[in-house]
Amino acid sequence: MLGRFERKASGEATVEYGDGTMRIVKPGSFVRCAVTGEPIALDSLRYWSAELQEAYITPEAVMKRLAGLGRSPG
């Protein structure tokens, strides 16, 4: 859940991704998908890699990224 300061922030956020958690380092209203470059509203962010510190807009974007790294999900 985002605090009141993060909700009012605009622009691109800086986020540290953890396993099942994320921490807002620099407030903003969105992050960018590492695969497509599309903005993802922080309220809608559901997919990320703690290892790679990247956000993804859809499960398909995650799969595309993993395939590009020669990895399989799991």
What does this structure look like?
- The chain is an alpha+beta fold and 74 residues long.
- 20% of the residues lie in helices and 28% in strands.
- It contains two helices and six strands; from the N terminus they run H-E-E-E-E-E-E-H.
- The protein has helices at 4-8, 59-68, and strands at 14-17, 22-26, 30-32, 39-41, 47-49, 54-56.
- It has a two-stranded antiparallel ribbon with strand order 1-2.
- A hairpin with a 4-residue loop joins strand 5 and strand 6.
- It is globular.
- The protein starts with a helix and ends in a 6-residue tail after the last helix.
Produce a short descriptive summary:
By secondary structure, the chain is α+β, with helices and mostly antiparallel strands.
Radius of gyration: 12 Å
Mean of residue pLDDT values: 89
Strand content: 25-35%
Q: Briefly note the structural class of the backbone.
A: alpha+beta
Proportion of helical residues = 10-25%
Tell me the span between the first and last alpha carbons.
26 Å
Spatially, the strands of the biggest sheet line up as: 1-2
- H-E order: HEEEEEEH
Low-confidence stretches: none
Largest sheet: 2 strands, antiparallel
Key phrases:
6 strands, 74 residues, two-stranded antiparallel ribbon, alpha+beta, 20% helix
